Amino acid sequence: MANFNKVLLMGNLTRDPETRFLPSGQPVCQLGLAVNRVWTDQKTGEKREQTCFVDCVSFGRQAETLAKYMKKGRPIFIEGRLNYRSWETQEGQKRSKLEVVVENFQFLGTGGGGRDGGRESERTMGASSDGDPGWGGAPASSSGGGAVLDDDDVPF
């Protein structure tokens, strides 16, 4: 039987990223993401909203980049995979968690917190799972700059 484990999420950070280091020295960044769903109730005709809170984790260069540029409330697009972790606390309690391991991501903008109310040029930055950051799928320039997008360029 074939298997497929892929998650695509777009939402806002619920807290500032938390960075820790593995015994090997590799950075690990933990993120909380809020993803909203809005729909119209068929019976009442009123708009309804549901928020799903998702724990995400990133490793290596990606972790450093996320910790450096992301803050609570900022929007992000994350591509990753589901991972189930279980452990036992020092008190002997069993704990478990389903989380998203970040494989790629793109910064979506300022989240309205920028100097010009969120209307400054949006840079999208992605990083592949091999730790090599790229700029929004655009070819890298010799100056190291990224792709600058207008609202008309964004497909959603």
What does it look like?
This protein is mostly beta strands. It has one domain (7-150): OB fold (Dihydrolipoamide Acetyltransferase, E2P). Helices cover 6% and strands 47% of the residues. The strands form 3 sheets. Strands 1-3-4-6-5 form a 5-stranded mixed barrel. It has a two-stranded antiparallel ribbon with strand order 7-10. Strand 2 and strand 3 (27-40) form a beta hairpin.
Itemize the secondary structure elements and their pairings.
Layout: E1 7-13, E2 18-21, E3 27-40, E4 47-59, H1 60-69, E5 75-88, E6 94-107, E7 122-123, E8 126-127, E9 133-134, E10 148-149
Parallel strand pairs: 4-6
Antiparallel strand pairs: 1-3, 1-5, 2-3, 3-4, 5-6, 7-10, 8-9
Q: What portion of residues belong to β-strands?
A: over 45%
* Major sheet characteristics: 5 strands, mixed, barrel
The CATH C-level class name: Mainly Beta
Main β-sheet, spatial strand arrangement: 1-3-4-6-5
How many beta strands in the DSSP annotation? 10
Q: How many structurally independent domains?
A: 1
Annotation field: number of helices: 1
Give the CATH H-level superfamily. Nucleic acid-binding proteins
Instruction: Tell me the distance between the termini.
Output: 35 Å
Q: What is the residue-averaged pLDDT?
A: 79
Instruction: Please state the overall shape, judged from the principal axes of the Cα atoms.
Output: globular
| CATH topology grouping | OB fold (Dihydrolipoamide Acetyltransferase, E2P)
Order of helices and strands: EEEEHEEEEEE
Helix proportion: under 10%
Enumerate the spans where pLDDT stays under 50 for 5 or more consecutive residues. Answer: 113-149
